[in-house]
Amino acid sequence: MERTFIMVKPDGVQRGLIGEVIRRLEQKGLKIVGIKTMWIQEELAMEHYSEHAEKPFFRDLVDYITSGPVVAMVAEGKEAVKVVRNIVGATNPVEAAPGTIRGDFGMDIGRNVVHASDSLKSAEREISLFFDADELIEYTRADEEWLYES
Ligand code: IDP
Ligand code: MG
To answer: What is the CATH architecture assignment of 2-137?
Structure first.
């Protein structure tokens, strides 16, 4: 089992898409093991997106992600990192396939509704950046034996 980090960005929250994002994760079979609403401050935003510090869009990206509340989540499941990236879709909503969150709900790369970790390594980094260990809950979903062969 893997854990990955997902966030409904400020545009997703303001557009009333929190439930839609959670619904898609839940119906796929992912287990939400941590969730909270927060308003990201500049320092955390810059740390979260540090890999993009030299990019021309970095300042706008930090402004965007700190522009309103977000919903941060940790989802667990078999190959959760890849599964969630597939649900989220390509970075640019113009290119994102219909059926993905960005493909169904976005129009602009700078307003792409959600964040999701792109590798197991970044998932671990991002989870520890946003959640304390005691905010993540271990439990069994009642349908797990029907979601997985073994
Ligand atoms: P990802 O969110 O699909 O992992 P990244 O390349 O890691 O995409 O970029 C992080 C975020 O930075 C994107 O989700 C998007 O909000 C923003 N971003 C990426 N490329 C651009 C760009 O060319 N212009 C404006 N914003 C961008
Ligand atoms: Mg990324």
So the answer is: 2-Layer Sandwich (3.30)
